[in-house]
Design a protein that fits this description.
heterodimer; A: about 450 residues; Immunoglobulin-like; Cytochrome Bc1 Complex, Chain D, domain 2; five-stranded mixed beta sheet; three-stranded mixed beta sheet; about 40% helix; disordered N terminus; B: about 625 residues; mainly alpha; 18 helices
Chain lengths: ~450, ~625
């Protein structure tokens, strides 16, 4: 009997009934003699069919080509990912997957076998009343512990490789410096700031863009993640696992892309209404191309006549300029080291507090000129023509979608802050922009002209 | 006992509506818990259906983003706090006194208080639907999304205050069952002779008592922020959103085991019965349950691997989380060991129990894959996690609950359910469950984040989501069959007899349904599997054990019904509900809430001064 020692201890209650048998097995029964094998029943065939179905599903699901897939095309290869960080994670997962498959087959197999093999038949006697088996218990405690500790040690090693220090070491080994990009999560779009987009270059230049970031190929990129509102999570599945973007702290992570191309990213921490539509793109470029983009950033745009009229709308009736910057980077306040968007975020907080006031108090504020300012954090539009999407990676950018976006943002992205806060959306009952179609057309021309020459072609 | 005069006499009705409102009988309270939990199971299931319909294909716009967010918030909150936990309480209430040979729980009126507080709290949470103020920040409600200016309306106030009320109910129940199990066991039932279900109830109750104060603190802070303008989580004023995550998951991870340990206890009763063998490695199964409970306090940060706690903290929680798989695995091995060489009868409860083990293995394995933090960085907050949690809580907890419902159905109702319908229910639910949740593993690994109300085409997620939605309807059909079987069998089922399964535990030694006093004579326990010992000794002598004879209930002292638990619960929920009042003067909510406090205090005073019912004869009193 495999009773462990502590099962033997007596309690006061037990002494009252000390003469009683300790367990069912102490009562004599007819020993079971039936050990004849039984054929596989219909039910087991059903179960096998089910298992087959599950495997079929498994085959169906392996789709390494999908935009955000973190799988390789087969569980024994490491293709499908774009760089070393995602590859480390994939390797770990694939090994875990194989371990899981082996354990799954063994344990489910034993369970199924027992359920089928030891079925009761009419007239079967009581089976042998065993209570346990100590060596077996020790074995199936120790073997998984060793297996798990082995995997655990490996995970810890990988964990340290995912720290940004690894990126610096990697770059130094090649005599380079990693590119640092600051990503700021906003409800519900991404701001990207490059304080030193060309490390090692004499001339440095602040570059600010939104929702689509550009990085050079085969260069370690360190992301410094910040939030001015709620918690978001920065995730480029093909390049690296996610890292949360937390207000009050700066998290860092790194990745390296081995091939040029476009990678998909998405916010992975629930952050409110439009969480599902807080996406972004990463454009991995050749070094020369990346350098050209940086150097031509914020060069004055050549405006057609339509676009020039559009600029007047941007600055005038549309009041777009209150929140959006064009033709420049969002500057840093030298006193605080924080960008202009940060100041705008504080405005947003003040403004919502003000909105929560009673209507008569707000009216009084308007009368006395005590209303809070209304400039809020919004995407920098300087390189808009370089972007392939609008609304934080949710629709393709072209003149048609741009016009629709400005006219009625809710029709593309419910819960966007622009239609909630910008003045031109508050005057009409249908909540659309208070601009004429002609003004909209000119504005679209003006916005489409924003960007360096390399993008306008 | 001193009779205090001048206070309202105790109610004395044992039939009709009043008898249910004032009952302190653990079996009736168990039934109330069960029906309430099933009611909320249907509501949570409808919420799941709305989500599955919305996600059936890409770019669907059946519901708005805000509605979808409200749906997944309420689905999670409902299923965890208003379905699985009260289903656990259903089994605790009905079975603990019966399985340990007692006549009721230690504090019968506190038990009634737990139920009413739970029900009122759950109704308060859902009252938000009536005025369109539905919580929508997720069942975890991460700060600072819950703070102004990011959360408008009163939805989160409903969530925080109702959850606080539900916590009061859980704490009261937890204390009650700890005391009951420690103190009220029949003579001879030493700790190591207790059925495993009782062990798991004890462990769960201790976890409840220790874990709920943590969420209570977190909810007090959130309520202070929202009601009184405090700044615990207001980042603009220096508050810390990570504080919420630590508090929530330090509660939340033991909570996961509060949800699953009762189901593990149920399964540990069912597998031996239908294998006609004692549980393999009883002390190991008990001990691993205790180890799981202790280790559950050391793994909370695995919910926070991506928060940026640094590689040292992540390493520690990676290792502890992986190690908690060991005691869980040991339990599974012992269940298989119990079946090995047994004489297995695949009745519906046994099928459900085997289904539990089979599905829990899948959930456990995927759990190990995100215990490994570098791999979890990719899986965190994707549908892979959604698949995992549903294999553990649907494949695990819900299958365990249905196993228990079928197993004890004859004991609770006195009737036998329809076996064929039961098996159809099992197979449909098993297939539907896998069809719904297995594809989610792939959706997640193909990069689908959770909590998104829509997705664009071209990401390769449509097929998986379509399968999941089809699976949902298969589960719905299986549940309709269950409901039909349940109610039809109460009316038309065969008489079950007192021991239809030849079961090993004490509740089967008394008639079905059990008489109000449970045991005419308090049993003496002489080993594990006490009732098997009695039966097999008799069989060795060539005799059969008859069910206990009926005796006149009036000769046995039982706790009398009481109004006060209901009144006190009403006061407690009024305190919370009052703070949600939003009419006219902004501060009217404080005096209204204060009235609830007065009702609560009066309830407690009335409770403590309540006279005992009319005296019974000494001779019948077993104490």
């Amino acid at each position: 009997m495999g009773q462990l020692p502590f099962a033997e201890e007596d309690s006061p209650n037990e002494r009252r009934a000390a003469s009683a048998p300790r367990a069912v097995s102490d009562i004599p029964v007819n020993p079971a003699s039936d050990t004849s094998p039984r054929r596989l029943g219909r039910r087991s065939l059903v179960t096998l069919a089910l298992l087959g179905g599950v495997l079929f599903l498994a085959a169906l699901g392996c789709d390494a080509e999908a935009h955000q897939s973190i799988l390789s095309s087969t569980p024994w290869t490491l293709d499908g990912v774009g760089g070393p960080v995602a590859r480390e994670q994939l390797l770990l997962f694939n090994v875990l997957l194989w371990t899981m498959v082996v354990v799954f087959v063994l344990v489910e197999g034993a369970l199924l076998y027992a359920a089928i093999r030891f079925r009761r038949k009419p007239g079967d006697p009581l089976p042998p009343q065993t209570h346990g088996h100590t060596p077996l218990e020790i074995a199936w405690t120790i073997v998984p512990t060793i297996l798990i500790l082995g995997l655990g040690v490996w995970s810890v090693i990988v964990l340290f490789k995912l720290e940004p220090g690894e990126a610096i070491a990697l770059a130094q080994a090649e005599g380079k410096e990693p590119v640092r990009v600051e990503a700021v999560g906003h409800q519900w779009w991404w701001e990207f700031r490059y304080e030193d987009p060309l490390p090692g270059d004499e001339a440095t230049k602040l570059v600010t863009t939104a929702n689509e970031m550009r990085v050079p190929v085969n260069t370690p990129i360190i992301m410094d993640l910040k939030s001015d509102d709620v918690i978001h999570s920065f995730w480029i599945p093909k390049l690296a696992g996610k890292q949360d973007v937390v207000p009050t702290k700066t998290n860092s992570m790194w990745f390296l892309a081995e091939e040029t191309g476009m990678y998909y990213g998405q916010c992975a921490e629930f952050c409110g209404t439009a969480h599902a539509q807080m996406k972004f793109r990463v454009h991995v470029m050749e070094h020369a191309e990346y350098k050209a983009w940086v150097e031509s950033f914020a060069e004055p745009a050549q405006l057609s006549a339509d676009a020039a009229r559009g600029q007047l709308v941007f600055l005038g009736d549309g009041q777009c300029v209150t929140c959006h910057t064009v033709g420049a980077s969002d500057v840093v306040d030298p006193a605080t080291g924080e960008g202009v968007q940060h100041a705008r975020m504080q405005t947003f907080v003040e403004y919502t507090k003000w909105l929560a006031k009673r209507a008569d108090e707000r009216l009084e504020d308007v009368r006395t000129g005590n209303e809070p300012p209304t400039a809020f954090a919004a995407p920098n539009l300087t390189d808009l023509s370089c972007r392939v999407t609008l609304g934080a990676g949710i629709v393709d950018r072209n003149r048609e979608t741009l016009r629709q976006w400005v006219r009625d943002p809710d029709s593309i992205k419910p819960g966007n802050r622009m239609s909630e806060l910008a003045a031109i959306y508050q005057t009409r009952l249908d909540h659309r922009a208070d601009l004429t179609e002609a003004q909209l057309g000119d504005l679209v021309e003006y916005l489409s002209a924003q960007g360096p020459d390399i993008c306008l072609q | 006992m001193v009779t205090i005069t001048g206070v309202i006499p105790r109610p004395s009705t044992y039939t009709g509506l009043w008898s249910w409102l004032t009952t302190v009988d653990h079996k009736r309270i168990g039934a109330l818990y069960g029906f309430s939990a099933f009611f909320f199971f249907i509501i949570g299931g409808i919420e799941a259906g709305i989500m599955r319909m919305q996600l059936v294909t890409s770019d669907n716009s059946m519901v708005s983003a805000d509605w979808f967010n409200a749906m997944f918030t309420m689905h999670g909150t409902t299923m965890i706090f208003m379905v699985i936990m009260p289903f656990g309480a259903t089994f605790f209430n009905f079975l603990v006194p019966l399985m340990i040979g007692a006549r009721d729980v230690a504090f019968p009126r506190l038990n009634a208080f737990s139920y009413w507080t739970f029900l009122f709290g759950a109704l308060l949470m859902h009252a938000g639907f009536l005025i369109g103020q539905v919580p929508d920040a997720g069942w975890f409600s991460y700060a600072n999304l819950t703070a102004a200016p990011f959360s408008e309306g009163k939805g989160l106030d409903f969530w925080a205050l109702s959850l606080q009320v539900l916590g009061v109910a859980s704490l009261a129940a937890g204390f009650n069952f700890v005391v009951t199990i420690i103190n009220m066991r029949a003579p001879g039932m030493s700790l190591m002779r207790m059925p495993v279900f009782i062990w798991m109830t004890l462990v769960t109750s201790i976890l409840l008592v220790l874990a709920f104060p943590i969420i209570t603190v977190a909810l007090i802070e959130l309520t202070a922020d929202r009601q009184f303008g405090a700044n615990f989580f207001n980042t603009a004023a220096g508050g810390d959103p990570i504080l919420w995550q630590h508090l929530f998951w330090l509660f939340g991870h033991p909570e996961v085991y509060i949800l699953i340990l009762p189901a593990m206890g149920v399964v540990s009763e069912i597998i031996p019965t239908y294998s006609r063998k004692p549980l393999f490695g009883y002390p190991v199964v008990v001990f691993s349950g205790i180890v799981i409970a202790i280790m559950s306090w050391a793994v909370w940060s695995h919910h926070m691997f991506t928060v940026g706690l640094g590689p040292i903290a992540n390493s520690v929680f990676t290792i502890t989380t992986m190690l908690i798989a060991v005691p869980t695995g040991v339990k599974i091995f012992n269940w298989v060991g119990t079946m090995w060489n047994g004489s297995i009868d695949l009745k519906t409860p046994m099928l459900m129990a085997i289904g539990f083990v089979a599905l829990f293995i899948v959930g456990g394995l995927s759990g190990v894959s995100h215990a490994v933090s570098p791999s979890d960085f990719q899986q965190q907050d994707t549908y892979y996690i959604v698949a995992h949690i549903h294999y553990v809580l649907f494949g695990g907890a819900i299958f365990g609950i249905f196993a228990g419902i079928y197993y004890w159905y004859p004991k609770i109702t006195g009737k036998m359910y329809n076996e064929l319908l039961g098996k159809i229910h099992f197979w449909l639910m098993f297939v539907g469950m896998n069809l719904t949740f297995f594809p989610m593993h792939y959706a997640g690994l193909n990069g689908m984040p959770r909590r998104i109300y829509t997705y664009a085409e071209g990401f390769g997620w449509e097929g998986m989501n379509l399968l999941a939605t089809i699976g949902y309807f298969v589960i719905v059909i299986s549940l309709l069959i269950f409901i039909h079987n349940f109610f039809r069998s109460i009316k038309k089922g065969e008489e079950a007899g007192h021991d239809p399964w030849d079961a090993p535990t004490l509740e089967w030694s008394i008639s079905s349904p059990p008489p109000v006093y449970n045991f005419a004579e308090v049993p003496v326990v002489r080993g594990q599997d006490a009732y098997w010992i009695t039966k097999r000794e008799a069989a060795a002598r060539g005799e059969t054990v008859p069910a206990e004879p009926h005796v006149d209930p009036s000769t046995i002292h039982l706790p009398s019904p009481s109004y006060w638990p209901l009144i006190t619960s009403f006061g407690v929920v009024w305190i919370a509900g009052g703070l949600l009042i939003d009419v006219g003067w902004d501060y009217i909510r404080f005096p209204i809430s204060f009235v609830g406090g007065i009702i609560t205090i009066l309830g407690v005073i009335g409770w403590s001064l309540e006279p005992p019912a009319e005296e019974h004869h000494e001779a019948a009193d077993h104490h």
